[in-house]
Every structure is written in structure tokens, then in C-alpha cells.
């Protein structure tokens, strides 16, 4: 069984409204040095019964887990 972690994040150049809100809130709380905040997703799951878990996770990202028009992803297998 493989432990899979998929990190999904907006591509560079895509406006990250949630990241901007986090950045402004941190500035308001006194962390003026924070810049270029980006917010993403982490999806973790167990995957069993496949020969190549990385390839299967990539298929999952392409079909469901990431909107590949505006998002990039990184797969980690443990």
C-alpha cells in the first residue's frame, strides 16, 4: 500500500484571492514582512492494488483533483 500526498496550487500568474486575503490579514496582525502568500490544497490518501502509484495519482490529478488549466500539482509517494 502506498501513502499518497498530492499538493495542488495555483499556477504562477493566476490571481490567488485567498492568498492575498491571508497576506493582508498577516500584515494587519503585525507581520509586515510577509509577501506573495499563496494558498493551496493538500490531499492525502492510501492507494492499494496498483503497480505504479505515482502514475495512478497523476491520472487522478488530471481527471479530478486539479483543474490543470489554472492549477499545478505535485505528487509524493511514501
Major β-sheet annotation: 3 strands, antiparallel
Using the CA coordinates, give the radius of gyration: 16 Å
Terminal-residue CA separation: 9 Å
Strand content: 25-35%
Rounded mean pLDDT is: 97
Along the chain, the helix and strand elements come as EHEHE
**Class by alpha and beta content:** alpha+beta
Question: Helical amount among residues, as a percent range?
Answer: 25-40%
Please work out how many helical segments DSSP would assign.
2
The count of β-strands is 3
- Residue stretches low in confidence (pLDDT < 50, at least 5 long) are none
* Gross geometry: elongated
Strand order of the largest sheet: 2-1-3
Q: Could you walk me through the main structural features you see in this protein, from its secondary elements to its overall organization?
A:
The chain has 78 residues and is α+β, with helices and mostly antiparallel strands. The protein contains two helices and three strands. Strands 2-1-3 form a three-stranded antiparallel sheet, covered by helices on one side. It is elongated, with a radius of gyration of 16 Å. The mean pLDDT is 97.
SSE layout and pairing:
Blueprint (H helix, E strand, L loop, with lengths): L1 E9 L6 H12 L12 E7 L5 H13 L5 E7 L1
Short description:
It contains 2 helices and 3 strands.
Features:
78 residues, elongated, three-stranded antiparallel β-sheet, alpha+beta
